[in-house]
Design brief:
heterodimer, A: alpha/beta, six-stranded mixed beta sheet, four-stranded antiparallel beta sheet, 10 helices, 30% helix, globular, B: mainly alpha, ABC transporter involved in vitamin B12 uptake, BtuC, 86% helix, 0% strand, binds adenosine-5'-diphosphate, binds magnesium ion
Chain lengths: 288, 281
């Protein structure tokens, strides 16, 4: 079997109300790595996910998953999806273990009667995400981090090779974030394709191998080191970022020209240190 | 003790009461099952719309000489589909579109019924006539209700997942469009089955209240189903029997009992929350 991949060819999405959410996105994403999908709110991250899953129909272009049409790939349970917290109805009467079991429906027969293998997969997924002790909780009775982990557990129970995570780091504490990053790393190392959307810049270099910067179209795509630059980020985020810079004269008493640039939205700030810098000095404004 | 027993057995001496009770059990079951999906999907207004929209279908079916249930079903489904189509293809919000479509259809139905000579009794259509149920009504409603109930129970996990997370349902290869339209068809069929007994206006209550009670009290979906079913059966049976003894309209009494149960559930849960907060504090 060939390596898992997602091929996007000239994807454009226009919503029925006439909004052009995405235009001409062409990219190829390979398994075995973590790819960050980075863009401001409204950039089209969730829309791109939904196009990959066939939930919204692209007005132009084509999505190919591991060499197959989307529909065929979905039939094979290849794609797992972890929704954005805002898209879930947390009052819904389901227990944690019920949600994780939903990941197994595609493996079950007509009546969706869980087999022994299904129960085992659920237990294993709960363990791997440290959610075992909460399995009998109703999903509304969980903290922000636990809420995320339920859906990650569902993806694990489903066992797909391609995992799409929509803003898994929003509204969770640093400890949970680090635990999730370790989990994603090991999933990628097992040969899965991990695509994570985030508007949280600071953590991107620490866990992504590749990044796609989007703002209603694909602005840049490639390895973090070459693509995740100050210039590209300012292009992607425009005026949405808080931009703080300390130039050489404020940092050093010598002739050193290097400066510190702190880019932050509202979570982990991103820090650049080097000679490419502007002139403005502002106070630090980030939370941490 | 004897008099208590007689309280239940005496009404059953009449054939019309036997039919009424059987009918109330049938519609209590099918309405309560559907109401769980309706409440979770947030389709209360849709239920209201589809039930009102069946009226012109009844009138036209009478003119065409086809079974009224078929006319009602087609009109109800037409309302749901027209709403969906107009929402997709205009900038008007769904609730506004729905309001226009169903009130327009309801009004058309009223015009037709007052203009054409039909044996469709307006008051019975609006509020039901469970004491006047015939053998044939019973069989018709029973078949439709059984069909709906079996489909909903057998496919409840798929339907529940569709309500909870349609995107995930799609990614694991479930036929999301089929589930969506299936749910709309089930809605129209459920309404048609309960129409003779509960009427256009009151069927909406039977489609919302049991699910809402279950939603308040349950933590998992199967519990919600069980609670909704129990609440619905209790109110339908007790409402039918009480209405016999106190000589009141039946369907309205059932709805009053359901509303009362809902209030009790609401009171119970908010008291529960309050005590928990006090204990914590
Ligand atoms: N169902 C929809 N109908 C119309 N517009 C939508 C819909 N979903 C999203 N949009 C719009 O598309 C744009 C991109 O949204 P989204 O993909 O959710 O952005 P992101 O996930 O990057 O925050 C936004 O401007 C949003 O308002
Ligand atoms: Mg989003």
């Amino acid at each position: 079997m060939s390596k898992n991949s997602i091929q996007l060819e000239n994807i454009s999405v226009t919503y029925p109300n006439g909004h052009h959410a995405l235009t001409g996105v062409t990219a190829s994403i390979e398994a075995g790595s973590i790819c960050g999908l980075v863009g401001v709110n409204g950039a089209g991250k969730s829309t791109l996910f939904k196009a990959i899953m066939g939930f919204v129909k692209p007005s132009t272009g084509r999505v190919t998953i591991s060499g197959m049409a989307v529909k065929q790939a979905l039939k094979q349970n290849l794609v797992c999806y972890v929704p954005q917290t805002e898209e879930v109805d947390w009052n819904f009467p389901v227990l944690v273990e019920d949600v994780v079991m939903m990941g197994r429906y595609g493996h079950m027969g007509f009546l969706r009667h869980p087999s022994k293998a299904d129960h085992e997969a659920v237990t294993a997924a709960l363990e791997r995400t440290n959610m075992t002790e909460f399995r009998k909780r109703q999903i509304g009775e969980l903290s922000g981090g636990q809420k995320k982990r339920v859906f990650v557990a569902r993806a694990l129970a489903q066992g797909g090779q391609i995992i799409l995570l929509d803003e898994p780091f929003t509204g969770i504490d640093i400890k949970t974030e680090d635990a999730l990053i370790i989990l994603f790393r090991s999933l990628a190392a097992e040969g899965r394709l991990i695509l994570v959307s985030t508007h949280n810049l600071g953590s991107v270099p620490s866990f992504c191998d590749d990044v796609m910067l989007i703002n209603r179209t694909l602005l840049a795509h490639g390895p973090v080191e070459t693509v995740f630059t100050q210039e590209n980020l300012v292009k992607a985020f425009g005026g949405m970022l808080r931009h703080h810079q300390l130039v050489g004269a404020d940092l050093h008493d010598d002739e050193d020209k290097r400066s510190i640039t702190v880019l932050s939205d509202d979570e982990r700030p991103l820090v650049f240190y080097g000679e490419t810098g502007g002139q403005k000095i502002t106070k630090h404004g980030n939370k941490e | 003790m004897d008099s208590l027993l007689a309280f239940f057995t005496e009404p059953l001496a009449h054939e019309f009461m036997q039919r009424a009770l059987l009918m109330s059990v049938i519609i209590a079951s099918v309405c309560s099952i559907f109401s769980c999906f309706l409440v979770l999907k947030g389709w209360s207004l849709m239920g209201d719309a589809v039930s009102h929209a069946v009226l012109p279908g009844l009138a036209l079916a009478f003119v065409a000489g086809i079974p009224l249930a078929i006319g009602a079903f087609i009109a109800g489904l037409f309302c749901a589909l027209a709403t969906g189509y107009l929402k997709e293809n205009s900038r008007v919000k769904e609730d506004a579109v729905m309001g226009i479509v169903f009130s327009g259809m309801f009004a058309l139905g009223l015009v037709l019924i007052t203009k054409i000579e039909t044996d469709v009794h307006l008051l019975h259509v609006l509020f039901g006539n469970i004491l006047g149920i015939t053998q044939r009504d019973l069989i018709e409603a029973g078949i439709i209700a059984l069909l709906c109930a079996v489909i909903m129970l057998v496919k409840r996990k798929d339907l529940m997942l569709y309500c909870f997370d349609p995107v995930h349902a799609g990614t694991i290869g479930l036929p999301v469009r089929l589930l969506h339209f299936g749910l709309l068809i089930l809605l129209a069929l459920t309404i048609v089955s309960a129409l003779k007994a509960a009427g256009i206006i009151l069927v909406v209550a039977m489609l919302i209240a049991p699910g809402a009670i279950g939603f308040l009290l349950a933590r998992s979906f199967d519990h919600m189903l069980a609670i909704a079913l129990a609440a619905s059966l209790f109110s339908c049976i007790s409402g039918t029997i009480l209405s016999y003894h106190f000589d009141t309209a039946t369907a309205p009494l059932i709805v009053v009992i359901q509303a009362f149960l809902f209030l009790l559930a609401l009171l119970g849960t908010s008291l529960g929350t309050a005590t928990r907060t006090i204990i914590k504090a």
